[in-house]
Amino acid sequence: MSPTAKDTTMHYSGLVLGAIFIPVLGAFCLPLAAKVSKRLRNILSFIFIASSFILCLELIPLVLSGQTVSISKQFALGLNFSLLADSLAVFMACVSSLISAIIALYSFGYISHYENQNEYYCMVTLFLGAMIGLIFSANLILLYIFWEITAITSWRLIGFFRDKPYVLKADKAFLVTVFGSLLMLIGFLNIYQQTGSFDLPVIKESLKFSAVSNLTVALILAGIFSKSATLPFQTWLPDAGVAPSPVTALLHAAVLVKIGVYVFARIFIVNITPDVLWHTIVPLIAGLSAIVSAGAALIETDLKRIIAYSTISQIGFIFFGLALGNEVALLGALLFILMHGLAKAGLFLCAGIVEQNAKVKDITKLGGLISTMPITAISFLFCSFSIMGIPPFGGFFSKYLVFSGALAEGRLWIILIYLVCAFMTIIYLFRVFNLVFLGKANIPAREASPMMVKSVATLAILSLVAGILIYYPYQFAQKASWQMLEVIR
Amino acid sequence: MYALLVLVPFFSLLALNLPFRELNRRLAFGFAAILFLLQMGLVFIPDVYFWRVHLSFFANIFHFQLAADILSKVVLFCIGLVSLTALCVSRSLIKESEERFNFINIILLAVAGMNGVALAQDIFSLYVFLEITAVSSFILIAFEKDILGLESSFKYIVLSAVATVLMIAGIAILMFIAGSTNFSVIHSALLSQNRNLLLSLSIGLFLSALFIKAGLMPFHGWLPDAYTAAPAPVSIFLAGIVTKVAGVYCLIRIILSVIGFNDQLKGILLLVGAFSAIFGALSALTQSDFKRMLSYSSISQIGYIILGLGSGTALGVAGATLHIFNHAVFKSLLFVNSAAVESQTGSRDIDKMNGLAKQMPWTSLTSILGSLSCAGIPPLAGFWSKLVIIIALWLAGYKIYAVIAVLGSLLTLAYFLALQRKLFFAQPNDEFKNIKEAGFGLIFPAFFLAALIVGAGILSPWILSNFILGFNSLVGG
């Protein structure tokens, strides 16, 4: 290897390590920074998250040219420290860190008058770091470690307000997700016994000519479904709506629930080929979960719970796209992660503004807010359009691609479930918009602080821009899906 | 030269009670602290400088055979660590200097006994050192001479006496079979024997004695009472190390060096271990007394250690030993936390307390780390030992037990979350509005132990490979 090539490898490894460990280690400096000034702490928190985003951006040219970065340090029992940055990972990391950075900006305003701010900023930053770490992990145990760190941080974040019912719900979320991840750990052990390694590339090699048992797949799926709040583990997610709105945006919409989706892609598409049976079972479970939660969103009256149910419903679409396994559907699912993240984070943040200024979460008591908070209302509408899948918003393209991929597979009756879901999405989002922003103004509420409004507007505009300039994310996601399916073009 | 580890605490105990008691009383704390620190440091000294130096002078006077391997060293380190913690805590909780001096004396006696247990190479010395440890714990439990303390101390004496009788009977039969009390002699004698009723009887007697000492379910009756009734420094000492050495370490040592693994033995260990792990955790779920919950948690964690041992592989024993260390750290930490809460609020009833996190931030933070480590949440230290135990069970083919161990972690998490929810999170109620954080004497040890949990957790991957290698020769076949 020539010296320059070595330097480049070092450079890229440095980027990956930096993207993980700047927020992870930085998180613990924040309480110290708060001793100097609160402003410094807030800004540092944003800088840590944003630098993670910038480092991930720098990896894009490399992965687009078809190369990958891998770091590996061997330890006993196969508990290796192995990282791998391929286009799937970089795509996911960019999406997560971008949305987290915007949410961090929004928090400056939202969280400023509550207690325990040190804990909040520490946990948000640590969460993002663990998320990036999980994305780049190429070892199942390393992945599990980061997975549990995200569980700890979300436990603390959901329990941010210390009233008893809130804390109980935080504990519920922690227990449900840990239950799932423990089942997943058993699944990992099964794979370890079969292949003698926890390293994904090694597992992939040794499973080329043999299959994993259905039990293993089911155990790992239990972990994935619990984290992504899919039937039958979905109940913790709406309950977790008691958290502060930036947290719900971070956890429910943008990042946490995508962990399950990402790990599904990482394990079952890239590395292990499960039995054909699962190509039917996964879309079916995800479809049921999507339709049940869409129904719940239709009758629920708590603003944040509606959006939470909507998340569960949309996650179903992503699983659907991934489980179909053809190139178009996969492409659609990846774009769905981006578009849904942007738009759903926007919805939650809008809900946060409404909740904080109107002091009410019940949509039947709200009304006419468009006259007093126009920017929030328009942003809410834009984000809703994207979730509904109305062109030219980003959400249209992802939903369209998932459906067209599904048509190519030709299982009409499953497609029908999802079509009904998509239709219900339009109804319940219009219902919310109608009740909250239109009609007679019941509660006088003004617009929130400029920083909060700006971050909401940014997300809304990004949802629109991502649709108009669909070419760029499309190219990236296409590269990623080719690399995942090992198609050579 | 490791005979010094037994002799120095023992003779210093005598020296402290000779003339100049006034002076001694002032020096005792510093002296004991340095002694325990030295013991922790000695473990890291390369073998040639300390562990292989032979002193024929002592060997001629005292006829007991001692030896140290990696298992002994881990336990010796834990003894030093937990004793030091208990000592620090006693400084702020046992106010009267005469009382504290007595406490230090008894701790020194117990440490001499435990070091002897950790190093003994023949079955009779093991028994004698065990009794020294047991007698000092009787006194410690009833240290405050209150009715509850005396009652639970008496309970422990009775059960311990039963264990003693069983053990002595077991030793007698083994001596009858092998003609010696030395571990290796008995081991080779057992290998040449066919399985017969007498042999099984002696092993059975010995194992039941150790199950009682370790407080495994269903032999656990004395343990929650003893831990709860004892004063705080004593609870730390008992839960952190005494029962681990007296029960669990002896069990591992006897099985590795004397009996050897066979299928029935593994079956019994796995069954008892799994039973303790699950029912200990279930009982902990229902407790409302802070220390009682921690006691049942101890039973459950001892179950994990026994599960690791029951896998019968080097990996499993390594995991079990690592879990002894981790348990010593996080359970001492949690008992220090309980001492802090009790000393500040005057109560241990977690149902009554609310939202202490604001008033006692450091206690809250360190107790979260201790709880999560106990529940085996990565990247804290407890995760690695549980993972090694579970991998060992899985690879040895005991998949059902591995699943039980994994799901037991969920129960552990459940009761610790309940504890955290009631004690620290939730809104503070008026009664406890004016509580202040505990003093430096309670915060410093908690902080130190919490740092150890995080540090050991992050460094574990580096340590594990060497650590596990050390057990290959120990377990053999």
Q: Short description, anyone?
A:
By secondary structure, chain A is mainly alpha-helical. In chain A, 76% of the residues lie in helices and 2% in strands.
Describe this structure as you would to a colleague:
The complex is a heterodimer of chains A (489) and B (477). Chain A has 489 residues and is mainly α. Chain A has a domain of 170 residues. In chain A, 76% of the residues lie in helices and 2% in strands. A two-stranded antiparallel sheet of chain A has the order 1-2. In chain A, α1 packs antiparallel against α4. Chain A is globular and about 65 Å long. The mean pLDDT of chain A is 85. Chain B is an all-alpha fold and 477 residues long. Chain B has a domain of 217 residues. Chain B is built from 18 helices and no strands. Chain B is globular and about 70 Å long. The model of chain B has no long low-confidence stretch (mean pLDDT 83).
Secondary-structure topology with pairs:
The complex is a heterodimer of chains A (489) and B (477).
Chain A: H1 3-36, H2 38-64, E1 69-73, E2 81-85, H3 87-110, H4 117-136, H5 140-158, H6 164-195, H7 200-206, H8 214-227, H9 236-239, H10 245-254, H11 256-271, H12 278-299, H13 303-324, H14 327-358, H15 374-388, H16 394-409, H17 412-437, H18 450-468, H19 471-485
Antiparallel strand pairs in A: 1-2
Chain B: H1 3-16, H2 21-42, H3 56-61, H4 70-93, H5 97-119, H6 123-141, H7 147-178, H8 183-192, H9 197-214, H10 222-229, H11 232-259, H12 263-285, H13 290-310, H14 314-345, H15 361-374, H16 381-395, H17 399-423, H18 440-475
Helix pairs in contact in B: 1-5, 2-4, 2-5, 4-5, 4-11, 4-14, 4-18, 5-6, 5-11, 6-7, 6-11, 7-8, 7-9, 7-10, 8-11, 9-11, 10-11, 10-13, 11-13, 11-14, 12-13, 12-17, 13-14, 13-16, 13-17, 14-15, 14-16, 14-18, 15-17, 15-18, 16-17, 16-18
Number of E-state strands of chain A: 2
Order of helices and strands of chain B: HHHHHHHHHHHHHHHHHH
Q: Residue ranges of chain B: pLDDT <50 for 5 or more in a row?
A: none
Greatest interface (CB-CB under 8 A), with counts per chain: A-B, 31 and 34 residues
List the total number of helices of chain A. 19
